[in-house]
Design brief:
four-stranded antiparallel beta sheet, Muramoyl-pentapeptide Carboxypeptidase, domain 2, 2 domains, 11% strand, 6 strands, alpha+beta
């Protein structure tokens, strides 16, 4: 009788162990299925980066919405515009929709005797690593974080942003605001789907200092709304 009782207890214990093991395995499988996969090439916080609009040109990239290291736009072109003569020819590409819009913007400016010059468009993740590390080396990390995006947080990796100057002034600094080119850009870039991405007075929202040279393609409708409401892309996306 006693032996039967012991046998019964052992069987119950074995069944309990099997059930616990099975539940643990199922939980692990379920957890694995919730991990986001990088194949879609969007931000790590994908929903946050595309609020209100499912078009790829509204992709929000900043310190909170990081791109994967492998993110690469498939439709990159070199826009038919003037580039700064001493610039890096390896960063002249943009996504097709942005590059074609940029050509129209440059042509429109030229009709008013304003000569714009492209500096830096698409930059891949590894290129941004070098840009950021170089800035840290020259100016220190605190300064770099105000002006230079860390790898994975740069809009240049989207292929939708470009730094531009003009024949009046060719340095990427705030003195550019004193040029006719900047005044024209500020008043007209939205007509071609672009915004001044990091405007003055919005540093606490964008996370970056004022960059009058950095424009970003978002499409004409969105650019017009952002301009009319005097908001940033973060505010447009509700972030």
């Amino acid at each position: 009788m006693f032996n039967n009782f012991i046998f019964f207890i052992v069987i119950i214990a074995i069944l309990c162990v099997i059930e616990v093991w099975a539940n643990k395995k199922n939980n692990n499988v379920g957890h694995a299925n919730t991990i986001a996969k990088p194949e879609n090439k969007h931000t790590r916080q994908q929903n946050k980066g595309r609020i209100r609009d499912n078009r790829k040109e509204i992709l929000l990239v900043n310190r909170q919405n990081r791109l994967y290291e492998t993110y690469l736009p498939k439709d990159l072109i070199v826009p038919n515009i003037r580039f700064i003569s001493n610039g890096d020819p390896g960063v002249r590409k943009m996504r097709k929709v942005a590059g074609e819009a940029l050509e129209k913007l440059f042509n429109a400016a030229e009709t008013e005797n304003i000569v714009l010059l492209g500096v830096s468009g698409y930059r891949n993740y590894n290129y941004q690593v070098n840009v950021y590390n170089s800035s840290v080396y020259r100016n220190g990390k605190q300064h770099a974080d105000k002006y230079v995006a860390q790898p994975g947080t740069s809009e240049h990796q989207t292929g939708l942003a470009i730094d531009i100057v003009s024949n009046e002034y060719t340095n990427l600094d705030e003195i550019f605001v004193n040029t006719r080119a900047y005044k024209w850009l500020k008043e007209n870039c939205y007509k071609y789907g672009f915004i001044i991405r990091y405007p003055k007075g919005k540093e606490d929202i964008t996370g970056y200092k004022f960059e009058p040279w950095h424009i970003r393609y978002v499409g004409i409708d969105v650019a017009t709304e952002i301009m009319n409401r005097n908001i940033t892309l973060e505010e447009y996306c509700g972030k």
